[in-house]
Automatic annotation (TrEMBL):
Residues 146-296 form the Tetrahydrofolate dehydrogenase/cyclohydrolase NAD(P)-binding domain. InterPro entries: Aminoacid_DH-like_N_sf (IPR046346), NAD(P)-bd_dom_sf (IPR036291), THF_DH/CycHdrlase (IPR000672), THF_DH/CycHdrlase_cat_dom (IPR020630), THF_DH/CycHdrlase_CS (IPR020867), THF_DH/CycHdrlase_NAD-bd_dom (IPR020631). The lineage of its organism: Bacteria, Pseudomonadati, Planctomycetota, Planctomycetia, Pirellulales. Pathway: One-carbon metabolism; tetrahydrofolate interconversion. Belongs to the tetrahydrofolate dehydrogenase/cyclohydrolase family. NADP(+) binds at G172, R173, S174, I247. GO terms for cellular component: cytosol. This is Bifunctional protein FolD. It comes from Rhodopirellula islandica. SUPFAM superfamilies: Aminoacid dehydrogenase-like, N-terminal domain (SSF53223), NAD(P)-binding Rossmann-fold domains (SSF51735). CDD domains: NAD_bind_m-THF_DH_Cyclohyd. GO terms for molecular function: methenyltetrahydrofolate cyclohydrolase activity; methylenetetrahydrofolate dehydrogenase (NADP+) activity.
């Protein structure tokens, strides 16, 4: 029997309508609508698509959005000045600087990404990339949860997939997905959102030896490596749950980090690409933007 497809798009729609209802309550309580400020440096086509999707999702949830476009040749000082302006603007609830920033080779000026993310006011840091928010997450008392891992937590929770005591293998150790994902699943009880926690976590990566054997021990396998179809069918334990975080453009097709057709015949459940984790990332961004507005209203 082929694996059940975990419908991220549908769950994201549920979450978005919950956020929309909460936004309505917040605004009818006399608050200005939450506002997400996105900063897009350069002309990367994939980034243009994401930013447009985010704007549309905001609008549907009653969240205001502004987009500041800056040329690829923007300097670090100019971008830091933009971040400072958004930090100081009381109408702005959340700030998202779209990554990646343009590389030098692409006409960029070699902006230090870390310096820019560090400059975002932690109370407006809806990506949860700032050191303060990462630290709070690490200590099991998060403020903002990073959007992609939080989306995966919601997906597991809302589809009734048990994580307590299970072996989760996360492949990929990025600051955006792999690292926080591992941390969140290993936490006690519900310190990181709904009660999706208490897992035994293996964090695997490009230097991991015997990757196939390790993946095959996973009850839940989370692929976040950014390499198209790297996870093959023989790396999956029969009956495992497979979460595919990859968004790779191959020609005009969007493919995940998992070889879907092979995986589908081995796994018990799997997220498709597109329509899996991606839409959940955007839903959790809306959630965080409302949360930021609430935190600022309470100050
Ligand atoms: N500061 C920052 N925060 C981010 O959260 C961030 C970022 N920079 N840079 C780029 C990545 C990527 N990302 C995606 C979000 C949604 C989809 C998404 O909704 N994907 C759809 C398909 C969309 C399509 O067709 O391209 C899906 O998977 O079904 C994909 C990718 C957020 N990112
Ligand atoms: Mg890696």
């Amino acid at each position: 029997m082929p694996a059940t497809r975990l419908d991220g798009k549908k769950i994201a729609a549920e979450i978005r309508s919950e956020v929309a209802a909460d936004v309505e309550t917040f605004v009818s309580g006399g608050n200005p609508p939450p506002q997400l400020a996105a900063v897009l440096v350069g002309e990367d086509p994939a980034s243009q698509v994401y930013v447009r999707n985010k704007e549309r999702a905001c609008e549907k949830a009653g969240i205001a959005s502004r987009l500041d476009r800056m040329p690829a040749a923007t300097t670090e000082a100019e971008l830091l000045a933009k971040v400072a302006e958004l930090n100081a603007d009381p109408a702005v609830s959340g700030i998202l600087v779209q990554l990646p920033l343009p590389a030098k080779a692409a006409g960029g000026t070699g902006i230090d990404e870390r310096a820019v993310l560090d400059a975002i006011d932690p109370i407006k840091d809806v990506d949860a990339f700032s050191p303060v928010n990462v630290g709070l997450l690490m200590q099991g008392r998060p403020r903002f949860l990073p959007c992609t891992p939080h989306g995966i937590i919601q997906l597991l929770h809302r589809t009734g997939i048990e994580t307590s005591g299970k072996h989760v293998v996360v492949v990929g150790r990025s600051d955006i997905v792999g690292k926080p994902m591992a941390m969140m699943l290993a936490q006690k009880d519900s310190t990181c959102g709904p009660a999706v926690a208490n897992a035994t976590v293996t964090l695997a990566h490009s230097r991991t030896q015997n990757l196939t054997e390790i993946c095959r021990q996973a009850d839940i396998l989370i692929a976040a490596v950014g390499r198209p179809e790297m996870i093959r069918g023989d790396m999956i334990q029969p009956g495992a749950v497979v979460i595919d975080v990859g968004i790779n453009r191959v020609g005009d097709k969007l493919v995940g980090d998992v070889a879907f057709a092979e995986a589908e015949s081995v796994a018990s459940a799997i997220t498709p690409v597109p329509g899996g984790v991606g839409p959940l990332t955007i839903a959790m961004l809306l959630h965080n933007t409302l949360m930021a507005a609430k935190l600022q209203a309470a100050k």
